[in-house]
Amino acid sequence: MTTATHRPVTTPEEPLGGAPSDSGAVVPAHVAIIMDGNGRWAVRRGLPRAEGHRRGVEALRRTVKSAIELGIRYLTVYSFSSENWRRPAAEVADLMGLLKLFVRRDLAELHRNNVRVRIIGAREGLAPDIGGLLEEAEALTRNNTGLTLVVAFNYGSRDEIARAMRALATDVAAGRLQPEAIDADAIATRLDTAGIPDPDLIIRTSGEERLSNFLLWQAAYAELVFMPILWPDFDRDALAEALDLFRQRDRRFGGLSAQTG
Ligand code: FPP
């Protein structure tokens, strides 16, 4: 592991970077996951895609537990993108149902485990029951101090950036902000992720190798790990493998590595 000379611009609530785990190994502070492959997992078994998503929620539960055990501070999961509305209505309904079930069934346990829930993504246009549940999850767990679970729901990075730009333009038009004062921090503090450190590691399962409109701004210095495993099969071993790959990376943040610098 190298020491960064430059840090990505952000407004973290606590210092960035990895923390030593119980075993002394450096653990990324923030891991973000594109949970891909539910549909293929189901189709390969002759099951409906909905079953793949249901098993995907089980994998999410396992991953939250493993993240806590491994000492990860922030876990962000891409649960529904702003583009997922293009899927057939029945599948969208399945995914909405699973989100509601996840919040109703798991919120109390997340709270007991000191998990703080944050939701990123556009709230406008969501069904009132969904919007209400998301608010309830955040309000109940607001003061928790353990893992922060960031659920990206109705999330698209370009939409998030456009909303931040709109907020900046509104401030400029109102005379509260000078155009010269617009810098990376001014943008970061208007994103949905304000206050959350940038991801150190982004994992995508299912073998696809792209970001699909996920955390495009925040990913500036993230290490990307693409794994062939389909999301419903993801478990603690797979997460540990991704962390091992992360440790082998030479993070320079635009500077020089410790070896050469
Ligand atoms: C990608 O699989 C996964 C999604 C579009 C949604 C991820 C959702 C979950 C893990 C369950 C829901 C969890 C919550 C908290 C709502 P895919 O359908 O794109 O799979 P494919 O690429 O194999 O078709």
Automatic annotation (TrEMBL):
List required co-factors.
Mg(2+)
Q: Which residues bind substrate?
A: 37-41, 49, 53, 81-83, 85, 87, 204, 210-212
CDD domains the record matches: Cis_IPPS
What stretch or stretches form a coiled coil here?
none
The record's active-site residues are D36, N84 (proton acceptor)
Alphabetical keyword list: Magnesium, Metal-binding, Transferase
* Alphabetical list of InterPro entries matching this protein: UPP_synth-like (IPR001441), UPP_synth-like_CS (IPR018520), UPP_synth-like_sf (IPR036424)
Regions crossing the membrane = none
Gene Ontology molecular function, alphabetical: transferase activity
Q: How is the cofactor bound?
A: Binds 2 magnesium ions per subunit.
Keyword set includes Lipid biosynthesis: no
Q: What is its EC number?
A: 2.5.1.-
Binding residue positions for Mg(2+): D36, E223
The ranges of region (Disordered) come to: 1-23
Tell me the enzyme class: transferase
* Function summary: Catalyzes the condensation of isopentenyl diphosphate (IPP) with allylic pyrophosphates generating different type of terpenoids.
Q: Which NCBIfam families match?
A: PRK14830.1, PRK14834.1, uppS
Question: Per the similarity annotation, which family is this?
Answer: Belongs to the UPP synthase family.
How would you summarize the oligomeric state and partners of this protein?
Homodimer.
Record HAMAP family: ISPT (MF_01139)
Name of this protein: Isoprenyl transferase
